[in-house]
Amino acid sequence: MSNISSEAAWEQCLEIIKDNISYQKFKSWFQPIEPVKLEENTLTIQVPSQFWYEWLEEHYYGMLRSTLAKVLGDDGKLEYSVVLEKSDDNNTDNRSVRLPQRPMPPENNQGQEMKGYSEYSPGKIENPFVIPGIQKTKIDSNLNSSYVFDRYIEGDCNRLARSAAMAIGENPGSSSFNPFFIYGGTGLGKTHLIQSIGNKVKQEHGNELAVLYISSESFTNEFVQAIRNNRASEFTMFYRQIDVLIVDDIQFFSGKEKTQEEFFHIFNALHQDGKQIILSSDRAPREIPDIEERLISRFSWGLSADLQIPEYETRYAILERKASDNGIELSHQVLEFIAHNFKSNVRDLEGAIIKLLAFASLQHVDEIEPQMAKRVLKDMIQESQTTVSIEQIQDYVCDYFGIDTNKVREKTRKQEIVEARQIAMYLSKQFTDSSLKTIGLHFGGRDHSTVIHAISTVEERMQTTAKHKRIVEELHQKIEVSTL
Ligand SMILES: Nc1ncnc2c1ncn2[C@@H]1O[C@H](COP(=O)(O)OP(=O)(O)OP(=O)(O)O)[C@@H](O)[C@H]1O
To answer: Which of 11, 50, 189, 462 fits a 20 to 30 Å CA distance from 69?
Structure first.
């Protein structure tokens, strides 16, 4: 291969590069480069500045490697000649800076991966530690700009976590909430919340503070690659200069001893320097299996806060907000229907809104009727809502009275619990095909005569007390909406 000229080799490289990036980027970053020489399969190119070299290395390393492999073969190498301006006279002095010849990961080693090549993008941090001594202003925080506090609806389920997160966003590193450990089930808003902190810090402090969001999976992969390429110390160096380090889904560290050890050292260094550490996990620190005790105890140094499944009112408020963010207006009945049927997490609520949005725009529908919503979302609702379950009725009734659902299943004889229990039994008879015996079993194993007594008590009270009648009718209507 090296019997061609450097010009010809670089020309071939440019042809390939041109097909893989936008014309604007090609023009800005590649056209000004001059080929200098080609010796023993090492192509030297001249770039206008040190910064230029760093930029190419940071953003186009993978693409340049693959391109070189295509043009010069797998052992093709690239060397940069950086033009250094001398300040005392107008002469220029050329200095060569070697492109680090890291081995490519196996799947890219063939030099034939151009089709799948994508440029550096958030969510896919390409070795952010590639340049030793990287300036903080150049660190891509990898934050999603739509994950902000303004869009994070507050409810009982997240109040503590949200307010602590806001305090940290305003003054990172200076509170006792360090580390800040958020945990909770899937789709409950951990990523949104921890990224909101990062975005708040960026908003308040601009580039003064280096913020980095990374999933623990990416952290692990990068660390493994760093070890493979003898760049572990650069990896550590990079992480030690971060001011606000946000690591998502830390449970993935489970069983990865080397990564845990590395993270332990980074954690200590940052914590000692008063840098803020924010972590998320699907469970509480002590419940993560196969994590070193010394890390677990550090995770608990600051503040741990959990995110609960949102209660009905919060689900409703989230839906209202998501609908308006998406430019779709939904009636109270439709919002109520979704809030009652999508209970397990916020991601599902969002999914429901998006499905309705897609339906409305494809069908050119201006207003979504409850019946329509029910039809469109039918597949997404796990249980068939045409027959509401006894548990759901218990939920509706307890929501209404503001009591814990478990209470109606227990033996408690407190007046308000007894009343809620009797109404729930009455409505269970109205809305389900269940026998009196089955209904009784759902209410803490009571027998059928207790259920008969409850039903007749409710019917009697409805005839004698207007307030009682109204309550039962309201609940009846709510359940009816859910079974539309
Ligand atoms: N309180 C909230 N207000 C508004 N949107 C929310 C709220 N909680 C979660 N969301 C939205 O729900 C979706 C899922 O949230 P997120 O990805 O943060 O969950 P997660 O807990 O990190 O889930 P996983 O553990 O599966 O990664 C996101 O689009 C997020 O914006």
So the answer is: 50
Domain ranges of the chain: 6-115, 149-307, 312-380, 390-482
CATH of domain 6-115: 3.30.300.180
Q: Kindly state if the Cβ of 346 falls inside 6 Å of ligand 1.
A: yes
Please state the atom number of ligand 1 nearest to the C-alpha of residue 184.
Answer: 21
Please tell me the CATH code under which domain 390-482 is placed: 1.10.1750.10
User: 261-308: per-residue pLDDT in tens?
Assistant: 999 999 999 999 999 999 999 999 999 999 999 999 999 899 999 999
**Ligand 1 and 347: CB distance under 6 A:** yes
Give the pTM: 0.60
For residue 456 and ligand 1, the question of a CB distance below 6 A is answered with no
Stretch among 195-209, 297-311, 404-418, 443-457 having the lowest mean pLDDT: 404-418
CATH code of domain 312-380: 1.10.8.60
Which pLDDT does position 20 carry in this prediction? 85
**pLDDT one-digit tens code per residue, 97-110:** 555 434 444 444 33
385 vs 403 pLDDT, higher one: 403
Q: What is the 3-state secondary structure (H, E, C) of the chain?
A: CCCCCHHHHHHHHHHHHHHHCCHHHHHHHHCCCEEEEEECCEEEEEECCHHHHHHHHHHHHHHHHHHHHHHHCCCCEEEEEEEEECCCCCCEEEEEEECCCCCCCHHHCCCCCCCCCCCCECCECCCCCCCCCCCHHHCCCCCCCCCCHHHCCCCCCCHHHHHHHHHHHHCCCCCCCCCEEEEECCCCCHHHHHHHHHHHHHHHHHHHCCEEEEEHHHHHHHHHHHHHCCCHHHHHHHHHCCCEEEEECHHHHCCCHHHHHHHHHHHHHHHHCCCEEEEEECCCHHHCCCCCHHHHHHHCCCEEEEECCCCHHHHHHHHHHHHHHCCCCCCHHHHHHHHHHCCCCHHHHHHHHHHHHHHHHHCCCCCCCHHHHHHHHHHHCCCCCCCCCHHHHHHHHHHHHCCCHHHHHCCCCCHHHHHHHHHHHHHHHHHCCCCHHHHHHHCCCCCHHHHHHHHHHHHHHHHHCHHHHHHHHHHHHHHHHHCC
The domain covering 149-307 belongs, at the CATH homologous superfamily level, to P-loop containing nucleotide triphosphate hydrolases (3.40.50.300)
Higher pLDDT: 181 or 435? It is: 181
Does residue 350's CB lie within 6 angstroms of at least one atom of ligand 1?
A: yes
ipTM: 0.99
